[in-house]
Structures are given as structure tokens and as C-alpha cells.
Design brief:
Layout: H1 14-33, H2 39-50, H3 62-82, H4 85-90, H5 92-117, H6 122-133, H7 140-145, H8 152-179, H9 185-216, H10 220-241, H11 245-255, H12 265-289, H13 299-327, H14 331-342, H15 346-357, E1 359-362, E2 368-370, H16 374-406, E3 420-424, H17 428-441, E4 449-456, H18 465-481, E5 487-493, H19 497-507, E6 512-516, H20 529-538, E7 542-547, E8 557-561, H21 572-586, E9 589-594, H22 596-608, E10 613-617, H23 627-630, E11 635-640, H24 656-663, E12 668-673, H25 684-689, H26 693-699, H27 701-712
Parallel strand pairs: 3-4, 3-6, 4-5, 6-7, 8-9, 8-11, 9-10, 11-12
Antiparallel strand pairs: 1-2, 7-12
Length: about 725
């Protein structure tokens, strides 16, 4: 019984300690959610209760510190990994302005408060102010969970965090150097060169290593461990360069952002492990620092804690308010900015511990005089608790408002406009890549219906056919579930595979068909194969034919060839939104080869929905044989083809599959056959301008944009 109910505290049995921590991670959010308290605040409070300054059940030992450090690095890494690089570059000036607001305002107020309210010297006041200037993205997991991580306010705040934390930690390094008499010309040269070297290694070299590894090794565990190695390697390099480890973790996330798509299984594993284990450990560890007894030690402790908390909170609020007024943000966006930037934890804790350990002399009694006194140390712990509490509530309130305002119209409940993607699968080797592509092209706001289909010919006497087919379907479901997507398994008996697929398309109202490239078994076989050609002639649905030569996430660029007059067809918005989804999900650069009229249409769309894109003129038909000269290693070709009788059809397009088969043997490619309206005798443009305008507007944001463009003509 003593093993289960130990008589001495804190606990020493590692099994019981880990069990208790897991129970806290499980139950604290569940219980506090009922009283509308943010889950992360619940974990901090739970840590305070069970920690050494509370009931002293669990000691804040090396295991807690190690797991907590990993959790802190994880938060910064996820912030860099989940950030929208297009918006990050677009808002870089705004991030810089916010970064200066949230650095200079706390520095100014902090120095004034240190000099005139707390009667500190200049060095202590500057170091204290740098603690107010820095902040930790404690509330980021909460905001990410609520689905607003890509909001512009979040983007700007994350970018500004990099700036203010770096500047605050540089102030710390300078103050420490001054206290030791080490601030010389050599100090500055060494600091600048080390920072430049660190940034170049992380931004230029690590992505190349990561791309090579992810291409060569597709094992799930190996990929995840490799990513962890990169995160901690970046953190170590940052500390070696003279800045805090969190800066390195953030830059690593930013550097490998294009290599890990937001809907990939690897991203799902990264987020799951971080949110389930590492980040909760960090929050519990922060809570263990809270010492409620410090309030009762002396009046000076209380006074210092109140001043520090009020100055830090006021300064961060003023910075958020100035950002809102400067860029005309909404009230909810200001709450997001304030919630993310108000929490003081990691860099603040690092600064106060460094300052506390620096002894500048001794007093009359021979006691050491520290750069930051014990009162400041205790006041910092109180400030961490209060600012994290305020940040949690503000971030949750702002995120809820933004999520409500941005919530799209629920169209999936309408049977006529739901997105349904069918993936016929034959073997486990090809099914994974087809499922991955299907997830890449689906609309992120929609819980698209994914269907995997396997067809068995009952005329073939194969006793194991059903078992093999079911095993392939199970593997497809496993691949989809790794990205939190549900997949319907369809097992069908039919003597004709083409008839079986086309029947499923009509029965389930399939909108998109994803096929693997036909494997030629006979000399007389066509490039696409009789099955694919038969489906293209019978099924009027957007069809994607995919041949993979490397993991989809490792492509640097996607070259998209759009034939002339494609924008005049009804199927245009249906496949174009899939191209946009690929760009948004992967972050890779898109190179559009188009005619001028199509380019004008796309440019208008890009104004509202930016992606990384370049435009090139569509080549002459005789130049299509030079495709192999246009593609570089790690490029993917996306060729939009057309069916006979459509506005974009040209006889030379029928030669394109043969050219691809001949010259592009080492590249991945996707062939797109757009869906088309049924023959009515009415011109396509008239149909779009007429009764079909309404349905097109309901399909997706891209459809609404296309409709607006067409209405102008």
C-alpha cells in the first residue's frame, strides 16, 4: 500500500509521478472547461498546486525541466512551422512595426518604473525593462486549436515575437557583459558574426538536409525523430550564437515550413505529440514556479510584484492598441495580439535567473548584492502567473470572435454542392500517394468525403482476392486517418472495372476522381490505358491522373500549364480551386504557363487569395516537346488538358501525354481533365452568365471569385 500511497512527499517513484502528471494533463482542462477557464491556464494552476510551492507532491526536478524545455521549444517551432509564409512575407513590415512597438513601449515604461518607482539603478532598470519587452507565445496552442492560426493578427504577432525576444535577449547579453566588463569591440564583432553564421546555417543549409532526408526516408518514426533533431540542433546553435534557444526553434520551423504541408501525416504527428505531451509538461513546469507564499514574506515583495505586473500588462496592451490603430485591425484582432504578447514566461524567466545570479558586490553585512534582487525574482513569478492568466482569457475571447466571423457557410450539408473525392486503389504501394494527393487538393474548410474503391472481378477464380482488396482499403484508411481524415471504404464486385468505377461515381455524386497512372504491360498499350480513357469518355467529373516519383511535400515548385481559353469553360473554377489548395497546403511556388487573357483572370483572383506564384507565357504547341528543359530536380508538372468539343481543346493536346511519357521519366506529374457541362446547345459562357451563376457561387470561395469576374464581362 505504501507503493500506491507513499508516506513521504514529494513523490520519488517515477511511475506514480508520471501517472499523476498524465492525470493532470487529462483532467485539468476537462474540469476547468466547465467554468470557461482556458485549458492552458488550468495546467499552470495545476502545476502551482502540486508543485514545491504548493502541496509539494511533485518536485520540479530535471525530468520536469527537460520536458518543459522541450515543450517551450515545441511552441516556438510550431509557430514557425504553421505560419503562412505568403502572409509572413506580405506582413513583414507590419511584423517589424509591431515588434518595435512591443519592444520600445515596455522598455520605456520599464526603465521609468525601475528608476522612479522601485529606486533601481540604470543597469537593473534596463534589465528589468527587457523582461517586460520579451514575451512567450503561451496562448498559441489555444489559438491554433481554435483554427485561427493563419489570421493576419496571429501572423504579425508571431513575427513581432521574433523581433522583440531577440532584442530583449541581446539587451540581456549586453547588460551581463557590462556587469563583467566584457563589452568591447571584440564582444560586438563576435556577437554579430555568430548571429549571421547561425541564421545562414539554419535558413540555407538545414532545409536542404531536411529535403534530402524526407525524400530518402519515408518511415514515419524516422521522419518525426529527424524533425526533433533539427529543432534541438537549431536551439543549440542559437545558444552558441549568443541568443536564446527559442529563437533557434522558431527559425527551424520557418526554414522547413515549405517541406511539411499542413495536411500531411508528419504535421499531424508533430502537432499531436506536442499538444499531448511536451507543451502540457512545459505549462505544468511554469505553474510549479508560482510561490503564493511570497506575497506574505514582506510588503516590498508585494509592491515589486504589483508594479512589475501592472507595467508589463499596461505596456503590452498599449503596444497591441497602437498596432490596432496603425493597421486598423478589429477589436478581436487586438485581443489576439494582446493575448499572444502579454504572457511572460520563457525569456522573462531566463533573464531574471541570470540577473539574480550576477553578484555586483556586498552590502554592509557582507551579504551579496545581486543585479536583480530576491524581491524581483519573487515578483517575476507572480507576474508570470497573472500575465499568463490574462493572456489566456484575452486570446480565447479574441480567437472565438474571429472564428465566428470567419466561419464559412456550411455547404457540405447540401447534397448538390458537397465535395466528394473518389480514389480507386489497386495496391498498397500506390494508394498512399493517391490518398495524400487527394488530401492536398481538398478544400481546407470542408470535411470532404473521401472514398477509396477496390473492385473485384467475380469471374476470376481467386480465393484471396477479397482479402487482398480489403487489406488495400484498410491501408488507405490508415493513411487518411493519420491526417485526421475519415475515408469511406468501398468494395465492389463487377466484371468490368470501368463500369464499376463509373457506377460508383454516379451513385455517390463524386465531384473529383483521383487515378494512378496506368502501368503499361503490353507494347500496344496507350499511355493512359483503356480504363482511364474509358472513364474520361463516360464520366463528367474533374479527373486527376497522378504519377509520383518522390514524396509530394518535397517538391520545390509546381509548373502548371493552362491551355488557352480554359477560363471560358464551366469546369474552370472546379479544378482551379484544387490548384490553389495545393499551393495553400504545401506553400510551394506555383509557375503558371498561360495566355494573357487567362493571366488577367488569375491576377484578379490573386489580389484576394495570394499564393506564391510566377507567370510565364504558354509555349507554342511545337515547343511542348521541350518540357524536360523547363523542369528542374524536385519540380512537379501539372498539365491541364481538355476534352473534345470544349473551348480550350486543341488537337495537339492529345500528344501531350505521349510527350510526358517520353521525356519526363524522372519527374512527378498530374494530368487534369476538367469536368464539363452536359451538351445543351447553349454556349458555355451563356450558361455561366445565366442560371448556373448561383450554383457556382455556392461551390467555394474560388467559385464566387470566378463568378464575380464573369459578371463583369
Amino acid at each position: 500500500m505504501e507503493f500506491i500511497f507513499p508516506s513521504e512527499l514529494p513523490l520519488t517513484n517515477p511511475v506514480i509521478k508520471f501517472l499523476l502528471i498524465l492525470l493532470i494533463i487529462l483532467l485539468a482542462p476537462l474540469l476547468l472547461n466547465k467554468v470557461k477557464i482556458p485549458p492552458l491556464l488550468g495546467l499552470i494552476l495545476a502545476g502551482a498546486v502540486v508543485g514545491p510551492n504548493g502541496l509539494d507532491i511533485i518536485e520540479r526536478d530535471n525530468g520536469i525541466i527537460l520536458s518543459g524545455t522541450a515543450g517551450l521549444l515545441y511552441i516556438m517551432f510550431l509557430a514557425g512551422l504553421e505560419i503562412d509564409l505568403i502572409d509572413f512575407k506580405k506582413n513583414s513590415k507590419k511584423s517589424f512595426i509591431f515588434g518595435m512597438y512591443t519592444f520600445l513601449i515596455p522598455m520605456t515604461l520599464g526603465i521609468v518604473a525601475g528608476l522612479f518607482l522601485l529606486d533601481f539603478g540604470w543597469a537593473t532598470s534596463i534589465l528589468l525593462a527587457s523582461m517586460f519587452a520579451s514575451h512567450t507565445l503561451i496562448a498559441y496552442p489555444l489559438i491554433s486549436k481554435m483554427g485561427v492560426a493563419k489570421n493576419r493578427a496571429v501572423n504579425i504577432t508571431v513575427g513581432g515575437t521574433l523581433i522583440t525576444d531577440t532584442l530583449a535577449l541581446l539587451v540581456l547579453a549586453v547588460i551581463v557583459g557590462m556587469s563583467k566588463g566584457e563589452v568591447t569591440l571584440f564582444f560586438w564583432v563576435k556577437l554579430i558574426l555568430s548571429l549571421i553564421t547561425f541564421a545562414l546555417v539554419v535558413i540555407l543549409i538545414l532545409p536542404k538536409i531536411a529535403r534530402w532526408f524526407l525524400k530518402k526516408h519515408e518511415d514515419n518514426v524516422s521522419q518525426y525523430i529527424f524533425i526533433l533533431v533539427l529543432v534541438f540542433a537549431g536551439a543549440v546553435m542559437a545558444e552558441a550564437a549568443g541568443v536564446e534557444a527559442i529563437i533557434g526553434a522558431f527559425l527551424v520551423g520557418l526554414a522547413i515550413n515549405p517541406l511539411i504541408s499542413h495536411s500531411s501525416p508528419l504535421m499531424n504527428r508533430i502537432e499531436f505529440v506536442g499538444n499531448a505531451i511536451f507543451i502540457p509538461f512545459f505549462l505544468i513546469g511554469v505553474g510549479m514556479l508560482v510561490d503564493f507564499g511570497s506575497f506574505f514574506q514582506s510588503w516590498e515583495t508585494v509592491f515589486v510584484a504589483i508594479v512589475m505586473t501592472m507595467v508589463a500588462t499596461t505596456a503590452k496592451y498599449l503596444a497591441a492598441l497602437a498596432t490596432q490603430k496603425t493597421f486598423k485591425f478589429t477589436k478581436d484582432e487586438r485581443r489576439i495580439i494582446f493575448g499572444l504578447s502579454n504572457a511572460q514566461a520563457a525569456a522573462t524567466l531566463a533573464a531574471v535567473l541570470v540577473g539574480f545570479n550576477i553578484i555586483t558586490g556586498t552590502d554592509a553585512n557582507g551579504e551579496p548584492v545581486r543585479l536583480l534582487s530576491e524581491y524581483v525574482l519573487n515578483g517575476t513569478i507572480v507576474m508570470i502567473l497573472v500575465t499568463c492568466t490574462i493572456a489566456s482569457f484575452e486570446a480565447q475571447k479574441g480567437a472565438a470572435g474571429i472564428a465566428l466571423a470567419d466561419s464559412p457557410l456550411d455547404l457540405d450539408s447540401n447534397e448538390d454542392f458537397a465535395e466528394r473525392i473518389l480514389i480507386p486503389v489497386r495496391n498498397q504501394e500506390t494508394s498512399d500517394e493517391l490518398i495524400h494527393l487527394s488530401i492536398m487538393i481538398k478544400s481546407p474548410q470542408k470535411q470532404s468525403n473521401l472514398y477509396a474503391l477496390s473492385i473485384i472481378n467475380p469471374a476470376l477464380e481467386d480465393a484471396n482476392a477479397e482479402m487482398k482488396a480489403q487489406k488495400t482499403l484498410n491501408q488507405a484508411s490508415k493513411t487518411a486517418s493519420a491526417t485526421d481524415h475519415f475515408l469511406y471504404e468501398l468494395l465492389r464486385y463487377d466484371t468490368n472495372v470501368e463500369h464499376g468505377i463509373s457506377s460508383v461515381i454516379h451513385e455517390n455524386k463524386i465531384t473529383d476522381l483521383v487515378l494512378g497512372l496506368h502501368e503499361k504491360t503490353e507494347i500496344g498499350d496507350s499511355f493512359l490505358g483503356d480504363l482511364t480513357e474509358g472513364l474520361l469518355s463516360k464520366c463528367n467529373t474533374s479527373t486527376f491522373i497522378y504519377k509520383s516519383s518522390q514524396p509530394f511535400d518535397t517538391h520545390k515548385r509546381h509548373l502548371v500549364f493552362i491551355p488557352p481559353n480554359a477560363e471560358k469553360e464551366l469546369g474552370f473554377p472546379f479544378w482551379l480551386v484544387k490548384i490553389w489548395n495545393i499551393a495553400r497546403n504545401t506553400g510551394a511556388r506555383m509557375i503558371f504557363y498561360t495566355e494573357e487573357e487567362t493571366k488577367v483572370c488569375l491576377l484578379d483572383i490573386l489580389q484576394k487569395h495570394p499564393i506564391r506564384v510566377d507567370f510565364r507565357p504558354f509555349p507554342e504547341w511545337d515547343e511542348m516537346a521541350n518540357l524536360n528543359f523547363l523542369l528542374k530536380p524536385d519540380d512537379n508538372l501539372i498539365m491541364v488538358l481538355s476534352r473534345k468539343g470544349t473551348a480550350s481543346y486543341h488537337p495537339r493536346l492529345e500528344r501531350v501525354p505521349h510527350l510526358i511519357n517520353t521525356y519526363l521519366t524522372k519527374h512527378s506529374f498530374i494530368l487534369i481533365y476538367p469536368n464539363q457541362p452536359k451538351a445543351t446547345g447553349q454556349p458555355v459562357m451563356d450558361m455561366i452568365h445565366g442560371s448556373l451563376i448561383g450554383p457556382i457561387e455556392k461551390l467555394d470561395w474560388m467559385g464566387r471569385t470566378i463568378s464575380q469576374l464573369l459578371k463583369r464581362k
